[in-house]
Amino acid sequence: MIPVRGYDGHSVAVLGLGRSGLATARALKAGGAVPVCWDDNSAMREAASAEGFLLADLLKNKNWEGVSCLITSPGIPHLYPAPHPVIVKAWENGAVVDNDVGLFFRSYGTPDWDDFDVLPRVVCVTGSNGKSTTTALIHHILQKMGRDVQMGGNIGRGVLDLEPASEGQVTVLELSSYQTELARSLGPDIAVFMNLSPDHLDRHGGMGGYFAAKSRLFTAGGPDRSIISIDEVEGQYLAAQLRETQGSGEPVICMASGRKLKGDGWSVFSRKGFLAEWRKGRQVASIDLRGVRGLPGVHNHQNACAAYAVCRSIGLAPRSIEDHLRSYPGLPHRCQIVADKNGVLFVNDSKATNANAAEKALSAFKNIHWIAGGEPKSGGISGLACMFDRVKRAYLIGEAANGFAAQLGDTDHVISGELKLAVAEAAAAAKVGDVVLLSPACASFDQFSSFEDRGNAFVAAVQAL
Q: Could you tell me if 404 and 372 are in contact, meaning their C-beta atoms sit under 8 angstroms apart?
């Protein structure tokens, strides 16, 4: 746990008592603050009370006396589509609003660092897709190299649940737009911008607000090195802005997928299955990614580029990075190969909760028996029509099944309804060389509690075949 600094003896309100909220309350208490906790869910309040935390209804003005700060969980809206009533109460009572990421950067550095010969570093990864795989891949490579490294944020442990920094340690954080948007303090040493595609637009008031939330990690955080994908115009804009504001040297490493980057700057790109690093107009390294089983597809090659660029920024040699790229086993629910049965590959990509993410998985395989559907998102799968020639048959589940059937046109499909039946039907139809792919392009909440729950159900159904 990282004790929160700066609130010793102060009352601090905590809204939301899930994983990150409870970790925040514990870290505040460890730093000498008095957490005043609230959650709309009574079960969450009971869990916090069982740990001895003070509960107070933060909708009542009397409970704001002496409270100078509100720490809110990332999932709670503070602006769009409407601010949570407790956040409005915080504003009315003159309390600042922050989140656990802001507290982390406020508290991570301590006077102990004066005795360190090698300072700790924080790597932050953000973007629409690929954040988790990239974060886990960086952690995997550094761990295999024997480096002191820990991982958290939007993956694994909450940021305040991590260990206090030790000499030379690298902390790798996956940060969502919800986390970067509100944090009052940001200070990564290395920051990664993966990509940008429409998602969470109701929460951010449109694409402009969504990009603004992501870009704060760079514009407000001021990293020493920024690794920026320039496949979209937003990344091009951000890279140019950071070059201009940070002056000489090499503050930016540009990334791209499917094309060679030119110029004298530092770049890492993937093309035709190969990763290449260029610096000052010369190629420095090349890695063949085509046989790396844990990183299938162009989207995973972009993840490999990002992790490679981070590790090069830390000082690792290309050959060492290559060795540990090859040993990466993959992350659950993200193009995870769960079985190879009688020549048929079964792939769990439950994390693909939107069409853009599903497109990445569809482009990584051929001869696909595609399991799709769930709680639909705006736009459906009509934008994936260019991928339908890779699909031998689609097996549709959940609330989106009928809508997806209409959008598939002439592509062979059946409405399976439930995931277990879809797996059985796909397995029965698949031939040697085919792929049974769960890549839903939907949220999971119509039939499952989370994308993890849905992915675990897929794995269980495959194992039961």
A: yes
Give me the mean pLDDT over the 17-44 stretch. Answer: 96
β partners of residue 372: 396
Q: Give me the amino acid identity at 206.
A: G
For residue 375, give the CATH number of its domain: 3.90.190.20
pLDDT exceeding 90 applies to what percent of the chain? 91
Angle at which helix 419-429 crosses helix 451-463, to 10 degrees, equals 40
Percentage helix, strand, coil for the chain under 3-state DSSP, each rounded to 5 = 40, 25, 40
Q: Among 188, 171, 169, which residue's Cα sits nearest to residue 180?
A: 188
1 belongs to a structural domain: no
Q: In what order do the strands lie in the sheet with 11-15?
A: 54-55, 34-38, 11-15, 67-72, 96-98
Residue with tokens 């062979």, as numbered in its chain: 412
Sign for the CA dihedral angle at 426, 339, 460, 397 comes to negative
Q: Are residues 429 and 456 in the same domain?
A: yes
pTM: 0.87
Kindly tell me if the per-residue pLDDT of 195 is higher than 70: yes
Domain termination site, one of 74, 98, 122: 98
Instruction: Show the domain range for 145.
Output: 106-326
Q: Are 264 and 284 in contact (CB under 8 A)?
A: no
Pair 391, 411: CB distance under 8 Å? yes
Same domain for 381 and 282, yes or no, is no
Please provide the DSSP assignment of 47-112 as one string.
HHHHTT-EE--TTSGGGGTTEEEEEE-TTS-SSSS---HHHHHHHHTT-EEE-HHHHHHHHS--GG
Pick the last residue of a domain from 98, 127, 160. Answer: 98
Instruction: Please indicate, yes or no, whether residues 94 and 119 belong to a single structural domain of this protein.
Output: no
Both 193 and 315 in one domain: the answer is yes
Tens-digit pLDDT profile for residues 220-276: 999 999 999 999 999 999 999 998 655 556 899 999 999 999 888 999 999 999 999
Task: Give yes or no: residues 294 and 408 share one domain.
Answer: no
- Condensed to tens digits (0 to 9), the pLDDT of residues 428-447 reads 999 999 999 999 999 999 99
